[in-house]
Amino acid sequence: MKTSANKLNLFSFTMIVVGLVIGMGIFRTAATSAKDAIDPSVYFSAWLIGGLVALCGALTYAEIGSRFPVTGGYYKVFAQAYHPSIAFAINCLILVSNAASLSGVALIGSGYLLKLFPGEWTDIHKALVSCVAIAVFYFINLRGLKLSSMAQNILMIIKIGMILVLIAALFFPDKYAVQETTTAVTTFSNMDWIKSLGVSLIAVSFTYGGYQQTINFGNEVQNPTKNIPRGIFMGIAIIIGLYLLVNMSYYNLVGFQQMKGEREIAYVVIDKIFGTTGATVFSAFLFLGVLAYVNGLLMSNPRVMYAMGDDGSLPKIFAKQNEKTNVLTFSLTVFAAICIIILFFAQEFEKILAFTIFLDCFGMVLSSATIFWFRKKTKHLDGTGIYKMKLFPLMPLIFIAAYLFVGTSIAIDDPSAALTGLGVLVTFIIIYFIFHRKK
Predict the structure, then answer these.
(1) 8 φ/ψ angles, rounded to the nearest 5 degrees
(2) Which residue ranges run through the membrane (predicted)?
(3) Do residues 23 and 207 make contact, with C-beta atoms less than 8 angstroms apart?
(4) What does the alpha-carbon distance between residue 318 and residue 332 come to, in Å, rounded to a whole number?
(5) Of 287 and 49, which is predicted with more confidence?
């Protein structure tokens, strides 16, 4: 059992929350969110609501983690509160969703990388560059090369640095774009506004993702009753502040209407302030960040497959290790193949985004709903020092309602992505019962 000295203090936990959420999405999804917003009020509301939903979710998962402190908690809560088949299906969905996220982020990096070379680059070119990046790091991982925690820390510093550079662009008002407005944009009904908000939230939800991992820290924080809500509040507040400032920078320097047509939107901002050389350096750093993200997911997700193979949820071959390098060769190969298959069929970031978030909606709604089950079953833990959120059940209900809203918006806006997601879920449940009947 960890002593108080070995547990996370308030500052460390706050930085973990920030690190879990801030990824590479903010350099691309702002343009996607703007494209789906019929008005700037929709756009900025989506980013603010996304942050508030993340706050509700992070607090909910932190309490679940306090009440059920086990390694791999995000997977095991399903087996505990639902049926093992749901745990298996949702865990597989999470793996596919992670593969889709990796593919989407690789496409972001490819778009910025190809900005460095003259020519008309299509989505197919970006997908091919992304495939090459995945393949390169697949072979690196096969050799047993691991990314150190120091490299991850350096990556975090680079990401924060790039965000601060984008925010600094706000101090150049002479570079601001002229905001174009049209009568077609300003005439819309309340229902149009709500529909637009739902679709705009898809990209925002992707950018705010990661806070669900607070479920793994509920028992690792000093004085959890006070420090968990404080750390989450401060962490999410920092993230909302950074994201809103970056979006203000995009809005002011690119222009709301022009944002809709941009993909590598951060490149446009940096090019406007620091010129082509500055934009080139920025793009190179961002691509390095993407490569580190790709490598990190290629390392971590096969280990989830290993755990599932080891406990019998997946065939034992998933738990097989190379005797010389200790690499999880089969699991790594399967995960890399899933990433490339998603790239091959989707090719466009928006298609991968809708598919990823629709899959996430299942996991988010079902996992956060377990708080009601755990509150009832672990009542004896109340008053023992565990974290217990205030405003219950309002916060988990807001979180669940938000993801139901986003999932419904995806189903209306992109039925094929929703049907594919449902098909994947049903397929995994069928596989579970076929595999366990054979056992």
Answers:
(1) -75, 130
(2) 44-64, 85-112, 124-142, 154-173, 193-211, 232-253, 273-298, 327-346, 352-374, 394-412, 418-435
(3) yes
(4) 9
(5) 49
| Cβ 13 vs Cβ 219: under 8 Å | no
Sign, CA torsion 75/76/79/84:
positive
pLDDT digits (tens, 9 = 90+) for 326-359: 778 898 899 999 999 998 887 788 888 888 899 8
**All structural domains of the chain:** 10-436 (1.20.1740.10)
CB atoms within 10 A of CB 316: 10
DSSP 182: -
Residues 6+ apart with CB under 8 A from 13: 217, 221, 227, 228, 231, 235
Q: Distance between CA atoms of 81 and 273, rounded to whole angstroms? A: 53
Amino acid at 345: F
Which residues make beta-bridge pairs with 8? 221
Mean pLDDT, to the nearest integer, of 386-414?
93
Global pTM value: 0.84
Q: What is the C-alpha to C-alpha distance for residues 165 and 279, in angstroms, rounded to an integer?
A: 11
Tell me: cis bond preceding 84? Omega within 30 of 0 counts. no
Helix boundaries (H) for 347-393: 349-377
